[in-house]
Design goal:
By secondary structure, the protein is an alpha/beta fold. The chain contains seven helices and nine strands. The strands form two sheets. The chain has a seven-stranded mixed beta sheet. Strands 1-2 form a two-stranded antiparallel sheet. The longest helix is centred in the N-terminal third of the chain and has 13 residues.
């Protein structure tokens, strides 16, 4: 699961109708919805622009300021990536179960990690995701980056994520069933890497697949986890910064068929 401790929430647990459409959210009042107020799908409507924008306003209020990331979050239909029984909760800032002991990360975590890749520099062109899950984060990434590659180690989730992405029109996302700890060397180097599970240390294979000045964002740790932002500053050197406390499922090696 992913839990953002700064909000003090205890949570379980990661397209627009037209895949080429991006919604502008810059003009919406930052006081549209109070941070603690849940999304009421019966009032806002699961498919409505208003429902997604309300979610984005909470992201703003909780410190996400990158407009490109916010627009991408506003453009993806999160309810299309979760079980129908959980669709009414899709736009809450909550992680939700997707089966196989995995979760769809809460929106704040997705936005925070992608902002870390983008802030203070040109938007990366080629980005790798470790842990496709249900495909939601890859869909958001597709709204931001020219090339998106994603790896899933659990075969059933790989099939589900790929189906979701294709059904929602994200056919250009390249999916791979394999061990995420090994990365995807045939397509390296990457301008950015997003890891959606926590290991005790960042795998060297992933660090080696970063382009020069590329960034990697990942949770690190066991009982006490933090987001870690790593930038490659030379062929043999990486700069490291520790960010917020979080809680993710463990990063495991191998595949599960």
């Amino acid at each position: 699961m992913t839990v953002r401790k700064p909000l003090g929430k205890d949570m379980a647990g990661f397209k627009p109708a037209n895949s080429n459409t991006r919604l502008s959210i810059g003009g919406v009042s930052s006081h549209a919805i109070a941070p603690s107020q849940p999304i009421q799908s019966q009032n806002l409507g699961l498919n409505s622009e208003r429902s997604r924008l309300a979610m984005v306003q909470r992201l703003r209020q909780h410190g996400i300021s990158n407009e490109n990331v916010l627009n991408a979050m506003a453009s993806v239909l999160r309810h299309a990536f979760v079980d129908q029984g959980l669709a009414s909760r899709a736009y809450e800032d909550a992680a939700l179960p997707i089966g196989h002991s995995q979760t769809i990360s809460q929106p704040w975590v997705v936005a925070r990690m992608l902002s870390a890749l983008c802030d203070g520099r040109q938007i990366p062109l080629k980005v790798l995701e470790i842990g496709t899950g249900c495909g939601y984060q890859a869909a958001v990434m597709n709204q931001l980056f020219n090339q998106v590659f994603t790896i899933e180690r659990i075969r059933a989730l790989y099939d589900i994520g790929r189906e979701h992405l294709q059904k929602q029109g994200y056919r250009q996302v390249r999916s791979f069933f394999g061990d995420g700890m090994l990365g995807w060397p045939t397509h390296a180097p990457f301008d950015g890497i997003v890891v959606a599970a926590a290991g005790l240390a960042i795998p060297q294979a992933l660090l080696d697949q970063l382009a020069l000045k590329g960034r990697l964002i990942a949770p690190e740790g066991s009982n006490n986890q933090h987001l870690v932002l790593i930038e490659r500053v030379s062929p043999t050197q990486w700069k490291r910064e520790v960010l917020e406390a979080v809680r993710f499922v463990p990063l495991l090696s191998g595949v599960q068929r």
